[in-house]
Design goal:
Blueprint (H helix, E strand, L loop, with lengths): L1 E3 L4 E2 L3 H7 L1 E4 L6 H12 L4 E6 L7 H5 L2 E4 L4 H14 L3 E4 L5 H16 L9 E5 L2 H4 L9 H17 L5 E7 L7 H4 L4 E4 L5 H10 L17 E6 L3 E9 L23 H6 L22 H9 L23 H16 L9 H14 L9 H13 L3 H4 L2 H10 L4 H15 L7 H8 L4 H13 L4 E4 L5 E5 L4 E2 L10 H9 L1
Parallel strand pairs: 3-8, 3-9, 4-6, 4-7, 5-6, 7-8
Antiparallel strand pairs: 1-2, 1-11, 9-10, 10-11, 12-13, 13-14
Length: 502
Amino acid sequence: MGSLAGGQPATLDIEELLATRLLVQGNSGSGKSHLLRRLLEQSAQWVQQVIIDPEGDFVTLSEKYGHLVVEGERSEGELAGIASRIRRHRVSCVLSLEGLDVEQQMRAAAVFLNAMFDADHEFWYPVLVVVDEAQMFAPAVGGDVSEDARKMSLGAMTNLMCRGRKRGLAGVIATQRLAKLAKNVAAEASNFLMGRTFLDIDMARAADLLGMDRRQAEMFRDLQRGNFVGLGPALSRRPLPIAIGAVETQARSSSPKLLPMPETVEDVEDLIFTPDPEEFTRQLAPRRARPAPRPTTDILAELSRATPLSDQPISRPGGEGTRPAMGAEEREERVSAVLAEILADPESGYRTDSALYQDFLVRLRMRRVSGSPMPLAEFRRRVAIARSGVDAATAASEAWATALKLSEMVSEDLQGVFLMLANAAICSEPCPSDARIARAYGTHSARRARRLLGYFEEQELIIVHADLTGKRIVGIPELQVETAPGAADAPDEEAGRAQAAE
């Protein structure tokens, strides 16, 4: 990484870092980005790297080290798919979020990190995940962004730092201020590199993390740019000052440099206040502002509401006139058919709701379904009900109406799983297996399916127990019903039939 005070080389054990994670802290200008670049350059040939880059500073790694640059201005479905393939094929990449506003950056990073976290077990290769300006993605308190975006981003960062080790994800997070970073994220790091800091609260926290006396915290004010105090199993067993070495690539942005002022010009008032004659004939160049990308779902929704430019009938081959207005029943039949067609795809369970919604709107347009498009919230609700497998008779029962009310107690992404359990209990069907529950949630992880059941039990929505043979039974106290016994490790028959049909 550089050199120690006595001139000896300062080394970092990458294998140990993969198991223990790293936190870098320092005020703006202390050399955090330089430190991260040194770490990335030195380890590029040894381990796969993924960099969450809010300012686009690390894209220059692609020129020398071959990192793939992924622009953040993509849909959630695209980002999730790219992250999954990045993990599968072990390609180092830089997720550049430059040009997005803070909330869009948080959402894009969360989708990307979650997709990497949810990779299949066979692809759990070691990955060094570097997050610059981590306080943006794991804020200690809410800011100007929506609560939904904050929870989404904070959850992804918590997964990375708290549970990522077993999945091969080693978090390296850098922040300007420890006080702005969520404590549960910072606390999971076992290695620390602390740079120049001026605020008392940040110096005190840095000293605590390094196991130093608070009276020694004043030393952080005196650190030079590019100098850090390191501690941790991958660095040193006691705090040591480290001067970070040189790097081979440079960021696109650079620190401000002083330039000499131009020589004094005579008649400076005339120069400034007298307009140039060419200014009256020269057209001002249009201001080039980079607009924030509009969500594709909004654009497709507008297209669905579009009306013809003319009231005149549209001529068609054969002399047909204007198409007659579509009745409510016919429209509902077409909407239901499109929804069933989308969900019939065995891979639909692993696509994000936003991606499914985009596909849904496009198919409605292709079938010329008129009227206002279904809102995204209603679409998610209908997808959850459809994935439960409920039939018409059960859907008309009072027990199902109660189950729908109970499902509102959990988040939208969990409603489909709960309604599937409720349908099995109402119809006294065998308890769904871990594989089936996982598919309803959109993952391949059986352990996540079991955690969902534990979460529902904590919310007092279900009771899980076993019969004498060890098969699982799920009961719903509010409905006074329970499933028939079912094997938790049974294969997902529906997914198997779909694959066989393909």
